[in-house]
Amino acid sequence: MDMETDKKTKITIEATVKAPLETVWKLWTTPEDITKWNSASDDWHTTRAENDLRKGGKFVSRMEAKDGSVGFDFSGIYDEVIPNKRIAYTLEDSRKADIIFEDKGEKTHITQTFEAESENPVDMQRDGWQAIMNNFKKYAEEHQRIKK
């Protein structure tokens, strides 16, 4: 049997954040912070977040349009958590995602790879996830600037 036909398209996005690794990790994984940066556009927001950051732990981010017209839970289970290094998880629809955090001194490089879903074009998915990553970068850098 040819397993290639079942292979999901993988999409990779990345960003270099001007903030130290420990700060980036904390802002990426703390529910109060997640609700402040986890959106792809200004007309969406995350109204609540839960994060049990350990292998087998569950996470949920409630994402909603600000006008209340539509919303969904972005959730899954962690497959691996290596503090300040890697987070791997499986979404509720069985797609896998992997995030690598690299310490670059005063900066942190984040690489996120995820399996595309079949509902939307790959470019649209990449742009959406990249927009969230860019939002995180902005939030973390602003946080870092205030902290200094």
Short description:
Helix content is 28%, strand content 41%. By secondary structure, the chain is α+β, with helices and mostly antiparallel strands.
Give the topology, please.
Blueprint: E1 10-17, H1 21-29, H2 31-37, E2 44-51, E3 58-65, E4 71-82, E5 86-91, E6 96-104, E7 107-115, H3 122-147
Antiparallel strand pairs: 1-7, 2-3, 3-4, 4-5, 5-6, 6-7
Explained architecture:
The chain is an alpha+beta fold and 148 residues long. 28% of the residues lie in helices and 41% in strands. It has a seven-stranded antiparallel β-sheet. A hairpin with a 3-residue loop joins strand 4 and strand 5. The N terminus is likely disordered.
Task: Please supply descriptive tags for the structure shown above.
148 residues, alpha+beta, 3 helices, disordered N terminus
Largest sheet: 7 strands, antiparallel
Roughly how many Å apart are the termini? 58 Å
Structural class: alpha+beta
Proportion of residues in extended strands: 35-45%
Q: For the residues shown, what is the average pLDDT?
A: 94
The number of distinct β-strands equals 7
How many helical stretches? Answer: 3
